[in-house]
Amino acid sequence: MLSVSLCGIKLRNPTILASGILGVTKASVEKVGKSGAGAVTLKSLCHEERAGNANPVMFGYDSVFFNAVGLPGQGIDNALKDFKRLDDLSVPVIGSIYGYKIEQFGQVAKKIASLKPAMIEVDISCPHMDYGKPYYADPELAAKVTKEVKKNSAKIPVSIKLSPNVYDIKEIAHAAEKAGADAITAINTATGMAIDIDAKKPILANKIGGISGPALKPIAVRCVYEIHETVKIPIIGTGGVTYGKDAIEMIMAGATAVGIGTAIYYRGIDVFKKVCDEMEQWMKKNKIKSLEEIRGIAHK
What we know:
8-stranded parallel barrel, alpha/beta, 16 strands, TIM Barrel, 4-stranded antiparallel β-sheet
């Protein structure tokens, strides 16, 4: 009932662990898979080790979760030693990568391809990175990164992760597709800020951070909807998915699969199973036998 095919990858259900949450070791990947996820995205890796930003880097309240971790990570070379391979796990693994310069995206893509992930996700959209003009905001730059990664991906499917912090996300998605992207991940976090009125200063040390959690979902749904009308490649709808109804909404907007991240904070690591159970209940109630019946239905 819930199985889907994403760029030829068979998923038992459409839920995918979003990058940045738990996907840091083989043990954590396997744990998320056993918790019901259809696929798991690794925490983003680049050409070097990164310490990330100074604390405080995250906090949440109500339906909003802020983070400005600054993409800390062990770097691709250490990951090669730790993971050794990614195709021997019980769940399909998506390797998330980024770089500061375009050629670095290619270097990391080539190395992560040697681990044999099911897909490579290209993070051009972190809202608090420090590599100058963001690749996510310029169609030409997004296309150049896409081409560089495709050239080094050993024919592994490539998904470009886009940002909502742009004037026209359709333009960026179209540029990525034209440059050879096999899929689009939409979206990364939106930028935001919170100020402690008693301390009279921003709560995050970085001042500005990325907004995730339920508050992001309407923005993500809008982006998925617009991208679906623009490109023919699959979309991984990510942002604010917390319940089964949220996943259904994403699929109706045009998503093939659904990324889940911050919902682990709200509902626990078994949120994937919970979301899938809720989706099945809704489908049975509405006599829907396959997700294909409702994918993109909001456009009709």
